[in-house]
């Protein structure tokens, strides 16, 4: 008798559990997040509206007290803001023979030019080019010094927003000096490479010479 009662209880408990498991339900809802698309932005730096190399100077028969003033634009034609820096500066000097005046001035290096000692570069960002044609307070000086001691790069992290254009002015002057005869017939070539990057890079402060 006792065994029969226990069996009935067990059967009843199992039956109740199965019914509850079969009839349980919860509220639910679904939403979707499909079609996610990513498109890379662009940084494109143009100099005077071109991607090609720009030659600013081709001066012959330069003499002391001569100066050359140039203006050019740098534009970010991409759709991402960028930071402008000078990543490479090259200066190459040639002696072009040792003349008598050079020798008398103390030039004893037939394979090394000295013109860079007497050429001064004044390079700056003209922030008010529409109002002034030269340097004024508020402009940003990149370099002001002799070309023979210029650094190979300059980091100043100038922000150029997408679609924005800035004006660079470059002045090169052949200044007078007691030893200027050492530069007779010498030749100097210099180049500047600008780079636009998404993020600013470590800052170095240029030193004028």
Strand content bin: 25-35%
Biggest sheet statistics = 5 strands, antiparallel
Low-confidence stretches: 1-21
N-to-C CA distance: 114 Å
What is the N-to-C succession of helices and strands? HEEEHEEEEE
How do the strands of the widest beta sheet line up side by side? 1-2-7-4-5
The strand count comes to 8
The residue fraction in helices comes out at: 10-25%
Separate helix tally: 2
Mean pLDDT: 82
Into how many domains do the coordinates divide? 1
What coarse outline follows from CA principal-axis ratios?
elongated
Q: Write down the Rg.
A: 36 Å
Describe this structure as you would to a colleague.
This protein has 209 residues and is mainly β. It has one domain. The chain contains two helices and eight strands; from the N terminus they run αβββαβββββ. It has helices at 2-23, 100-104; strands at 45-47, 67-76, 82-94, 119-126, 140-146, 154-160, 165-174, 187-197. Strands 1-2-7-4-5 form a five-stranded antiparallel beta sheet, with no helix packed on it. Strands 6-3-8 form a three-stranded antiparallel beta sheet, with no helix packed on it.
What does the secondary structure layout of this molecule look like, with pairings?
Layout: H1 2-23, E1 45-47, E2 67-76, E3 82-94, H2 100-104, E4 119-126, E5 140-146, E6 154-160, E7 165-174, E8 187-197
Antiparallel strand pairs: 1-2, 2-7, 3-6, 3-8, 4-5, 4-7
């Amino acid at each position: 008798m006792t065994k029969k009662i226990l069996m009935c209880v067990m059967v009843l408990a199992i039956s109740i559990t199965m019914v509850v498991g079969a009839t349980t339900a919860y509220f639910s809802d679904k939403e979707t997040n499909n079609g996610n698309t990513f498109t890379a932005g662009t940084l494109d730096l143009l100099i005077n509206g071109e991607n090609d190399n720009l030659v600013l100077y081709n001066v012959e028969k330069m003499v002391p007290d001569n100066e050359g003033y140039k203006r050019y634009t740098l534009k970010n034609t991409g759709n991402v803001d960028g930071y402008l820096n000078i990543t490479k500066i090259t200066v190459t000097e040639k002696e072009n023979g040792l003349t008598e005046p050079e020798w008398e001035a103390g030039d004893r290096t037939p394979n090394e030019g000295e013109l860079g000692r007497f050429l001064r570069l004044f390079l700056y960002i003209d922030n008010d080019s529409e109002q002034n044609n030269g340097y004024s307070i508020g402009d940003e000086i990149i370099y002001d010094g002799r070309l023979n001691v210029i650094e190979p790069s300059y980091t100043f992290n100038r922000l150029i927003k997408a679609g924005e254009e800035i004006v660079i002015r470059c002045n090169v002057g052949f200044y007078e000096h007691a030893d200027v005869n050492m530069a007779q017939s010498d030749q100097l070539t210099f180049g500047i490479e600008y780079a636009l990057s998404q993020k600013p890079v470590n800052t170095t402060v240029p030193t004028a010479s």
